[in-house]
């Protein structure tokens, strides 16, 4: 099993999306580690601290071309906002996610999601403090 096995791209253009507060969600265990690279356009990612929609604990990052972020969206409530963009400025992101086998993912999801994701979040926080994750 590779570290990041799911590779997909997201493209958004034309009308703006719903506000990030209206799209708040958690991902399934296959996103316990998620990395995204913005290739074109812009989009905002809203992270809710303590997993509630209390505006005092929210943090929004505006992603633009060449920005990279890594997170654990299985454990962190988040939402995405994309502004109105034309074809040339379309928001394009390359996303990589973990892909445990279905039986393992189901077992993890039922019993261990919080524990696994807390460990991952602490590691990401540790490496972020060392400035390991910066713009390319």
List the topology elements.
Blueprint: E1 6-12, E2 34-40, E3 43-48, E4 58-63, E5 68-71, E6 77-81, E7 91-97, H1 102-129
Antiparallel strand pairs: 1-7, 2-5, 2-7, 3-4, 3-6
Describe the structure.
The chain is α+β, with helices and mostly antiparallel strands and 136 residues long. It has one domain: Jelly Rolls (Sandwich), CATH 2.60.120.10. Helices cover 21% and strands 31% of the residues. It has 1 helix and 7 strands, in the order E-E-E-E-E-E-E-H. It has one helix spanning 102-129, and strands at residues 6-12, 34-40, 43-48, 58-63, 68-71, 77-81, 91-97. The protein has a 4-stranded antiparallel beta sheet. Strands 4-3-6 form a 3-stranded antiparallel beta sheet, with no helix packed on it. The protein starts with 5 loop residues before the first strand and ends in a 7-residue tail after the last helix.
């Amino acid at each position: 099993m590779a570290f990041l096995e799911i590779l997909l791209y997201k493209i958004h253009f034309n009308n703006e999306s719903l506000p990030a507060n209206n799209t708040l969600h958690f991902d399934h265990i296959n996103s316990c580690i998620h990395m995204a690279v913005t290739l074109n356009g812009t989009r905002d990612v809203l992270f809710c601290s303590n997993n509630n929609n209390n505006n005092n604990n929210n943090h929004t990052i505006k992603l633009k071309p060449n920005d990279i972020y890594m997170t654990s969206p299985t454990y962190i409530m988040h939402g995405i906002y994309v502004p109105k963009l034309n074809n040339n400025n379309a928001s394009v992101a390359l996303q990589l996610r973990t892909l445990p086998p279905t039986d393992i993912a189901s077992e993890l999801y039922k019993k261990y999601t919080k524990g696994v994701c807390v460990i991952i979040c602490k590691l990401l926080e540790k490496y972020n403090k060392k400035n390991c994750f910066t713009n390319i």
